[in-house]
Design a protein that fits this description.
- The complex is a heterodimer of chains A (113) and B (114).
- Chain A is 0% helix and 58% strand.
- Chain A has 113 residues and is mostly beta strands.
- In chain A, strands 2, 4, 5, 6, 9, 10 and 11 form a seven-stranded mixed β-sheet that branches.
- The relative contact order of chain B is 0.35.
- Classes of the chains: A mainly beta (113), B mainly beta (114).
- Chains A and B meet through strand 4, strand 5 and strand 9 of A and strand 10 of B.
Chain lengths: 113, 114
């Protein structure tokens, strides 16, 4: 069946640097991609929604200039955390959707030191 | 923002017992989904129940949906230690302005003691 993968699965970076997280769909064309963030022992919070070829729509309180989302193709979406700070340390999960099909990625653990 | 609330926040039971988790939501939905998440891992989709369904079964799982009360419950029967995980409900408002986004509840941490 279709699989959505994320790379890297975990990353440690220094404060002030930028980190790019990739979300790829295999055997599945994700017309819509959702990005979630999950802090420890908390639930998933939707950060943004993007349709292939369009600009992402960000949830209230999510800085679009800090969390850059690109969904240039039906099989690849990227989330770039710019000028990362320790408070950005979290688990980032993508979810691809095409009609009634949807698949979550396995998540990326970001730790900012 | 999260619209789902789950209770209990934490549940500890013995192996073999049943576990019931509840979820309440605030707006109209197209369907409601339950997920499991092992510590530090990704989500595992358990079951989806549509707004016109009242009950659904899958193996040891039983889900109910009461749209008049905007609530759902997940029952795990004959629990096993391997069921230890966090369980989340997620509501899908369907297409339209919401864009079929999923909104997650706060989750229930289930611990099944062997």
């Amino acid at each position: 069946g279709a699989v959505v993968s994320q790379h890297p699965s975990w990353v440690i970076c220094k404060s002030g640097t930028s980190v790019k997280i990739e979300c790829r769909s295999l055997d599945f064309q994700a017309t819509t991609m959702f990005w979630y963030r999950q802090f420890p022992k908390q639930s998933l919070m939707l950060m943004a929604t993007s349709n292939e070829g369009s600009k992402a729509t960000y949830e209230q309180g999510v800085e679009k200039d800090k969390f850059l989302i690109n969904h240039a193709s039906l099989t690849l979406s990227t989330l770039t955390v710019t000028s990362a700070h320790p408070e950005d340390s979290s688990f980032y999960i993508c979810r691809g959707r095409n009609g009634y099909e949807q698949y979550f990625g396995p998540g990326t653990r970001l730790t900012v030191t | 923002s999260q619209q789902g609330e789950e209770d209990p926040q934490a549940l500890s039971i013995q192996e073999g017992e049943n576990a019931t988790m509840n979820c309440s939501y605030k707006t109209s939905i197209n369907n409601l989904q339950w997920y499991r998440q092992n510590s530090g891992r990704g989500l595992v989709h358990l079951i989806l129940i549509r707004s016109n369904e009242r009950e659904k079964h899958s193996g040891r799982l039983r889900v109910t949906l009461d749209t008049s009360k905007k609530s759902s419950s997940l029952l795990i029967t004959a629990s096993r230690a391997a069921d230890t995980a966090s369980y989340f409900c997620a509501t899908d408002a369907g297409w339209g302005t919401s864009g079929s986004r999923l909104t997650f509840g706060e989750g229930t941490q289930l611990t099944v003691n062997p």
